[in-house]
Amino acid sequence: MLGIFGITAGGHTYAGDEEGYYQQAKAFSGGSYAFPLTEDVRYVAAWRFGRDGLATGGGGIGSPAVATPLATVGRIASATESGVQADEIVRVFVGFTNTLVGALLVAVCFLIARQLGASRRDGVLLALVIGVGTLVWTYAHQFLFSELLTALLVCAASLMAIRASTTATWWIGAVAGGLAMGGVFARATALPFVILIGIYVLAASWWRWDWRAAVRPTVSYTAGVALTGLLLLLANWWRYGNSSDVGYGQAPFEMSVWEGLHGLLLSSGKSTFIFAPVALVALVALPWSVRRRPAEVVLFLAIAVTNLLIFARFSGWSGDQAWGPRYMLIALPLFILTVAPVISGIAWRSAVATAGCIGVLVTTVGIAVNPLSWFGRAAAEFGTEWRDDVGAQAHIHEIHFGPASSQPVAHARLLPEAADSTARFIDDPAGADGRWAPLPMRVDERMGWHAETVQLDMWWYWVLRRGNPEWLLLLLVPISAAGVVGGTALGRVR
Amino acid sequence: LSLRKAVSIALVISAGVFILGMAYVIVRSLVGTEPVATISVSGNPPGPPRFGDPSTSVSRNGVRALVITTNDSSVPLAVKMRLASTGPATFSAGLGGSLRAARPEVVQEGQEFTLPVGQLPVGRTVVRIYAKTIPATTGPPIVLEQLRIAWEAAPSPLSRVVVWSLLIAGPLFLLLLTIRFAIGPPPDR
Questions:
Q1: Cβ A360–B141 below 8 Å, yes or no?
Q2: Of A46, A162, A317, A396, which has the fewest Cβ atoms less than 10 A away?
Q3: How far are the Cα atoms of A196, A397, B2 from residue A169, in angstroms, in the given order?
Q4: Residue A76: how many CB atoms within 10 A of its CB?
Q5: What pTM value is reported for the model?
Q6: Strands, DSSP E only, in B21-71?
Q7: To 10 degrees, the CA torsion angle through A70, A75, A79, A84?
Q8: Which of A85, A75, A68, A94 is nearest to A9 (CA)?
Q9: Best to test chain A binding among B29, B53, B128, B159 (most A CBs inside 10 Å)
Q10: Which residues of B touch A487 (CB under 8 A)?
Q11: Is-contact A361 A344, C-beta < 8 A?
Q12: What is the rounded distance in angstroms from the CA atom of residue A467 to the CA atom of residue B94?
């Protein structure tokens, strides 16, 4: 997965949230919580005033913190460059953060599937489908959205919680608690999952053993939550001067829940089942899988339903401007994993593989073409404002509810144009006729520049297109090697 | 040959095609192709270009397609090219695919060469310019003059095939990988 995600990574920002996280990670790598609020960053990055009145990142601290080591490597690697080129080198490195997070997430999904009784081969199949047939691949491809990290931490916490309840081991419970609270580092909305996983640890241990055995993992889980929670309070104070400030402003959770549910489940442009068809298989399999592993399936379902209800109330439920129902990604892997207890049945396995194949096709068009390109085109077609997060504009509404304008359909239509533009660039990389607009110096213009001409949206192509130093392409060697080693190992799975 | 074996072989092939395609894109982009000739088209009434930069050039061994929008079919059209590099080159032009092809001509350095395209029907017509030169050096593009012309450059067939192969081989590899784990011997437990 490291090979697949690494080769197809985008390597540039797609949204203000990502730009804010990037600036924050770069500041962390320089030893500061604050970053210079230049004119070109001010209007494109998600930022807040920090504790000293300096600019710092908005949103959870998790993604920028995880990206910091790569930002540090990028800064070292870009030491000989200056200006835009130096910044672009750091971006290429930071762009691999979600590559690593996504690959880890797929590995954790495999381990969970095994815990739920799937064979090694079925576990690989399910993890593979989650990895490349759902939103997971899209967000491993994109720059630094925090949903993927949240999903990883919630999944890892669930895995350790299952281990804690089956072995009644105290330290595993503590790790589970730490990971569950770690999800809140990435997104504040993961807080309810901490409670749900805690209830599971208590109930499942009690059910499997007795109340005495249940105390040990439950207490250690609580201790893990408390310790990590303390770290979060400190981090909040360090950034904002207020330990209870988690980085988000007043979020408008005031929409009709039915409207949100319709959009997230049944709309033609943002339904979770379109962007992750295997979720439909998991939904149908629920009555059977809940009988096999009731405690785990109920936990995963509770997390998925809670996440769904939270974002069904959110005015920006669609997660625009981004690919698919972005916020559903947080609990999507766990929901899909509910099919693990029954996947040994040939019918379920075939259904998972078929849905996975459809998912691969849908996801591929989301990877090949920058989502911002279609948002820009749609806005031009409908003559409305490009940027809008609440679905009020005509083109956004059409993307959400007009089948012909939905992202998978529109991206498939844009694919020939992307292929042609890319082929043109190969033929004439110098752009002697002035065809290729040069990379803008301003940060806010660079995001749009990547979407203006529909082209292959992968980092190594952008390195060529932007005229970044060619040595960056050497990164393809370890990435491809990881893919080859993984592929060889997979070949041995029977 | 079992289904599993066939899928495994197809997996390796698709991965190979993807990697080769990627290598082609990188190598071709890094090596680059310098423009060796400049083109101008004359004959139609003057007017602003509909889109695109109103200048173009032909790269070494390259193909350019001019999409010419004509509003007067009585005015004959000519494509003018000037070789900016050293050494001889052959140029040829084709109208609307292989409908009418001009005879390839050898042009010397700095020499201006006019391909008489003739009268075109009103509307859009694709004129393909083929250039074959050795060696190549950079030459300045000149502006397409006095035309109501909209042009777009068509990518070379090879580049187009490579990019499409890349776009197809990637997902095909993943589809085959998924199928690979959905078939085969019974589970290991």
A1: no
A2: A46
A3: 19, 51, 46
A4: 12
A5: 0.82
A6: 35-42, 55-59, 63-70
A7: 110
A8: A94
A9: B29
A10: 15
A11: no
A12: 34
The ipTM is 0.86
Q: Are A325 and A270 in contact, with CB atoms under 8 Å apart?
A: yes
What is the per-residue pLDDT for A395? Answer: 82
pLDDT per position as a tens digit, A17-75: 899 999 999 999 999 988 888 888 888 888 888 888 888 888 889 999 999 999 999 99
Tell me: the pLDDT tens digits for B76-123?
Answer: 555 555 554 444 455 555 544 333 444 445 555 555 556 556 666 666
The single-letter DSSP state of residue A475 is G
Q: Which has more pLDDT, B32 or A176?
A: A176
Q: How far is CA B170 from CA A453, A488, B25, in A?
A: 22, 17, 15
pLDDT confidence of B45, banded at 50, 70, 90? Answer: very low
Judging by beta carbons within 10 Å of its beta carbon (0-12, 13-18, 19+), is residue A70 exposed, middle or buried?
buried
Please, are residues A458 and A7 in contact by the beta-carbon 8 Å criterion?
yes
Residues of B in contact with A415 (CB under 8 A): 167
Tell me, what amino acid is at A441? Answer: M
Q: What residue type is A343 in one-letter code?
A: I
| Cβ separation A360–B189 shorter than 8 A | no
Q: Which regions in chain A score pLDDT beneath 70?
A: 383-392, 430-436, 494
- Between B111 and B1, name the one with better pLDDT: B1
A491 interfacial to chain B (CB closer than 8 Å): yes
CA distance B134 to chain A (A): 17
End-to-end CA gap in chain B: 26
| Phi and psi based region of residue A319 (left: phi greater than 0; alpha: psi -120 to 50; beta: remaining) | left
- Residue A127 distance to chain B (closest CA, Å): 10
Contact A388, A405 (CB under 8 A): no
d(CA A418, CA A494): 38
Å between A430 CA and nearest CA of chain B:
7
Contact A123, A159 (CB under 8 A): no
pLDDT value at position B123? 60
What pLDDT score was predicted for residue B61? 42
Tokens of B120: 């075109």
> Any CB–CB contact under 8 A between A432 and chain B?
yes
Question: Which position has the higher pLDDT, B143 or A125?
Answer: A125
Contact predicate B3/A437, CB 8 Å: no
What does the pLDDT read at residue A82? 76
Sequence-distant (≥ 6) Cβ neighbours of residue A240 within 8 angstroms = A48, A50, A51, A56, A247
Instruction: Look at residues B53, B76, B54 and name the one whose alpha carbon lies nearest to residue B125.
Output: B76
Angle value at C-alpha A294, between A293 and A300, nearest 5 degrees? 90
User: A121 and B188: CB-CB below 8 Å?
Assistant: yes
Q: Give the pLDDT of residue B107.
A: 54
Chain B CB contacts of A473 below 8 Å? 26
User: For residues A403 and B154, which has the higher predicted lDDT (pLDDT)?
Assistant: A403
Contacts of B175 in chain A (CB under 8 A): 357, 360-361
Identify the CA nearest to A23 among candidates A150, A140, A144. A144
Top residue of B158, B174, B183 to mutate, by most chain A CBs within 10 Å, is B174
| Angle value at C-alpha A68, between A62 and A71, nearest 5 degrees | 140
